[in-house]
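in:
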């Protein structure tokens, strides 16, 4: 006979698959013992640069029961965003995750449906949904629940699907069957470390957030340091270098989420087109995109930095 716990776990995993998630793993909602000293040290060394929000809610980042009262399980989910087509070679580049509609909204909708389905099937379940916008260490939870391992570029890597996916969570007050972590399969490979043009991966498994091209082009509000000139390899919003060179991303397959398809103009624009970008075109191409985060002025600043 299957226990209620097993039955509920099976339902949740089947429902995740039905809703289009790549994979689903579950871990016990408890304090992240191993992460605490690492996060503390990283912040102490100012590896977060101007991302001061990383210093807020330290306790909540490490303890899901402080986010959801009575939390028992963290359900981690992966959602593919690998595109079938990429930008032209003679273009300034944006990170593949930002090609289509802002993932925060797309995934939040799916997660709300997911939680509703769980309540319909199982009954009164308390919980919250999270997509990279609350103090949740999503990569740590995904690794803990066996969805992949933390690579040397500090991204979550999966043998089956690489790393071009979003991570989201449901933190719920339901007792479930828990998964176990998988082993590390980076081996002696240093492709990501060797390829990073700003040396942001300062040692294996450790990334200095304040030196990452993604940080410079999205998070940094001031001028980009002059000493980084010529290193960005045409990335104007985000950066995929350490993912593009990762051997595990040979296994990435195109997503089938229409909302993540890019605006047609995005793929056809050349460097010159970007240099002549108007506020109007910016608004049209990135209407509901994560690129809006950097604003028109921010993207212009990045393009000017690449041009000089």
């Amino acid at each position: 006979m299957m226990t209620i716990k097993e039955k509920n776990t099976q339902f949740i995993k089947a429902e995740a698959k039905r809703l289009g998630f790549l994979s689903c793993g579950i871990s016990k909602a408890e304090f992240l013992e191993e992460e605490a000293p690492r996060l503390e040290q990283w912040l102490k060394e100012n590896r977060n640069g101007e991302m001061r929000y990383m210093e807020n809610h330290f306790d909540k980042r490490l303890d899901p029961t402080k986010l959801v009262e009575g939390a028992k399980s963290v359900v981690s989910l992966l959602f593919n965003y690998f595109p079938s087509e990429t930008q032209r070679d003679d273009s300034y580049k944006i990170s593949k995750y930002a090609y289509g509609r802002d993932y925060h909204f797309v995934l939040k909708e799916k997660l709300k449906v997911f939680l509703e389905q769980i309540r319909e099937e199982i009954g009164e379940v308390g919980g919250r949904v999270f997509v990279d916008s609350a103090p949740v260490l999503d990569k740590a939870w995904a690794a803990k629940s066996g969805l992949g391992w933390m690579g040397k570029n500090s991204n979550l890597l999966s043998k089956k699907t690489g790393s071009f996916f979003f991570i989201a969570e449901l933190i719920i007050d339901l007792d479930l069957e828990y998964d176990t972590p998988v082993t590390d399969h980076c081996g002696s490979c240093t492709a990501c470390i060797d390829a990073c043009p700003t040396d942001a991966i300062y040692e294996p498994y450790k990334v200095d957030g304040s030196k990452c091209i993604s940080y410079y082009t999205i998070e940094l509000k001031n001028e980009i340091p002059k000493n980084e000139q010529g290193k960005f390899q045409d990335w104007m919003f985000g950066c995929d270098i350490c993912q593009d060179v990762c051997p595990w991303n040979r296994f990435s397959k195109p997503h089938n989420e229409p909302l993540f398809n890019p605006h047609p103009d995005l793929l056809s624009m050349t460097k010159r087109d970007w240099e002549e970008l108007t506020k109007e075109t910016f608004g049209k191409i990135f209407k509901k995109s994560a690129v809006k985060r950097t604003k028109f002025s921010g993207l212009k600043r990045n393009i000017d930095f690449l041009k000089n």
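note: Strands lie at 23-28, 73-80, 93-94, 127-130, 149-150, 156-157, 165-172, 201-203, 206-207, 235-237.
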